[in-house]
Write a structure and sequence with these properties.
Elements: E1 5-9, H1 14-25, E2 29-34, E3 41-43, E4 62-65, H2 75-95, E5 100-106, H3 116-128, E6 134-138, E7 140-141, H4 147-158, E8 171-172, E9 174-175, H5 177-189, E10 198-201, E11 207-208, H6 209-215
Parallel strand pairs: 1-2, 1-4, 2-3, 4-5, 5-6, 6-10, 7-9
Antiparallel strand pairs: 8-11
Helix pairs in contact: 2-3
Length: 217
């Protein structure tokens, strides 16, 4: 029986690495694409032309797009690297007839987001519609491997006074990465036509930013 095949971009990131290991344990064949030069990874940066051999990517059941360059700070950089780079990945997946494409997005993704990150994620979602991509708007990954979550944890432990933006009343929806992996499999196994191209993934009960800090102490 043929193994199912999954292509994962950003395979060396927190989400990409976990999903790779999770699916591998489920007997999937994993094709890892990342911007870090690692053994058994296909090296690729979002702002680079696609020059790698795409033959091994063919006949894939699933592509999970996790790649995002956080070093891009200005809007022009984000557009040239993350938005246009994601479009290239989606186009490639469509051209090689990947059965399902999943984009890892964010709960901060909406048109009038106050952050360039949220705006960039929203633009990636808009582009993705042309390629029948399923977007997962994920909450804050509850893992010490997550850079943001671990940074909040570290600062709350080390600093006597914690700087807050506003009153610290920002609502955070936490997400266990294992729950994300399980949901991805449900999406992949779902045989009927999926009506929505956006899913919100996270705990429906929010925690205030200031309370998250207090919970660490």
């Amino acid at each position: 029986m043929r193994k199912k095949k999954c292509i994962i971009t950003g395979a060396n990131g927190v989400i990409g690495k976990y999903i790779s290991n999770y699916l591998k344990k489920k007997n999937w064949e994993i094709i890892k694409i990342s911007s870090t030069k690692r053994k058994k990874h296909i090296f690729y940066k979002l702002n680079s032309p696609i020059k790698f051999d795409i033959d091994k990517l063919k006949k894939a059941d699933l592509l999970i797009h996790c790649a995002y360059d956080f070093k891009a700070k200005s809007w022009i950089e984000m557009k040239n690297i993350n938005i246009n780079g994601s479009k290239k990945i989606f186009s490639l997946a469509k051209n090689i007839s990947v059965k399902k494409i999943i984009n890892i997005s964010s709960l901060s993704s909406f048109e009038k987001s106050q952050s360039n990150y949220g705006k960039a994620k929203f633009q990636i979602e808009k582009i993705s519609k042309k390629y029948n991509v399923i977007n997962l708007r994920c909450g804050l990954i509850k893992s010490k491997d997550s850079k943001l979550y671990s940074k909040i944890y570290w600062l709350s432990k080390k600093m006597f006074i914690f700087p807050l933006i506003g009153k610290g009343d920002q609502k955070l929806h936490l997400l266990k990465i294992n729950d994300l992996a399980k949901f991805i499999l449900k999406i992949e196994n779902y045989k009927k036509k999926i009506k929505s191209n956006v899913f919100y993934i996270g705990n429906p009960d929010f925690v205030l930013f200031k309370n998250l800090i207090l919970n660490f102490n």
